[in-house]
Design goal:
Blueprint: E1 12-13, E2 16-17, H1 28-32, E3 36-38, E4 44-46, E5 50-53, H2 60-69, E6 73-74, E7 83-86, E8 91-95, E9 98-100, H3 107-112, H4 116-125, E10 134-137, H5 144-151, E11 156-160, H6 163-176, H7 182-188, E12 191-195, E13 207-211, H8 222-235, H9 241-249, E14 255-261, E15 274-277, E16 281-287
Parallel strand pairs: 5-6, 5-7, 10-11, 10-13, 11-12, 13-14
Antiparallel strand pairs: 1-2, 3-4, 7-8, 8-9, 14-16, 15-16
Helix pairs in contact: 5-7
Length: about 300
């Protein structure tokens, strides 16, 4: 389900409920009529990829995606263009022969959910047998960590500023909701997608705030590098980690969790209360006294 943090202030546009920037009345359509989108920080984000229907399949779903994203519906692949390829039951991002999918019911994802890092992630956000916190994932991305948390029993809001990624996340949740695997269906019911810049959002004070900002690493598997490169292209490669941290620290939450590469510096000037380290990643956990809810509760 695609929803905004404040439905009253963020109207429905082309099937999306959109988080608009402060003081803005532009819809998602208005944004994408431009070649770039300016975020609240004045950062240029590339225009959405063109949409291509899978050859031999009905183009109806591709047309609907192009309309929702205000993207161009093209007929053929062209060189190194980044495309959103949409079929009757599948969809993926593609460029130069590299395909990136958002899927929560794949064999790869099922294998990943058995990994030891998932236990660390659950401990970092405070999951216990009798406690399943609400989680606000401010960096939705491919949604993998959010899905793991949902499968652990947390209600997760995924905040994603790139509309094509938000669209893919929503489609992946819809597919997971009809999975033959009951745990996958149950997890999908716990996930909600918010479209918009996290730094313009108000996080409910009873949430755990989760951040996984993009961070360049020298040693990565080839597939991970290709996926990271595609995400960089979608976001314009802008490093907003410090701005994201400043926003996160101002939210009225008691717990903030930041995922970092194992040897990366701590994000921001504050020291974490504790850290949980795996083989390649680290979760920095910041636990604070309850903050006055000056921002106000957001109904989700």
């Amino acid at each position: 389900m695609l929803i905004s943090a404040d439905v009253a202030l963020n109207p429905v546009r082309n099937g999306f409920i959109v988080c608009l920037e402060s003081g803005s009345s532009q819809s998602i359509t208005g944004h994408y009529a431009m070649q770039t989108i300016m975020t609240g920080a004045g950062v240029a984000v590339p225009a959405p990829p063109a949409v291509l229907a899978v050859s031999g399949e009905s183009p109806a779903r591709a047309r609907a995606a192009a309309t929702a994203l205000s993207a161009h519906l093209c007929k053929h692949k062209a060189g190194s263009d980044l495309l959103l390829v949409v079929g009757e039951t599948d969809a993926w991002l593609e460029t130069n022969g590299t395909e990136v999918r958002v899927s929560f019911d794949s064999a790869t994802m099922r294998h990943r959910r058995k990994g030891g890092q998932n236990e660390l992630l659950g401990r970092a956000v405070g999951v216990k047998a009798d406690r399943k916190p609400r989680v606000w994932d401010a960096t939705g991305g491919m949604g993998r960590d959010a899905f793991v948390l949902a499968e652990l029993g947390c209600e997760v809001t995924l905040n994603e500023r790139v509309p094509v990624l938000a669209w893919l996340l929503n489609e992946a949740i819809a597919a997971a909701s009809v999975s033959t695997h009951e745990p996958v269906r149950a997890a999908a019911e716990c996930m909600t997608v918010v479209v918009g810049d996290s730094c313009q959002s108000a996080v409910p004070s009873d949430s755990v705030l989760y951040l996984d900002p993009m961070f360049p690493e020298r040693k990565k598997a080839a597939a991970v590098k290709k996926e990271a490169a595609m995400l960089q292209r979608l976001t314009g490669g802008y490093d907003d980690a410090e701005q994201l941290w400043a926003w996160a620290w101002a939210q009225p939450v008691e717990r903030i969790v930041v995922k970092r590469p194992l040897r990366a510096p701590v994000l921001g000037a504050q020291r974490p209360s504790h850290s949980l380290s795996g083989k390649s990643v680290r979760f920095d956990v910041f636990v604070r006294k309850k903050q006055p809810d000056s921002i106000g509760q957001a109904e989700v």
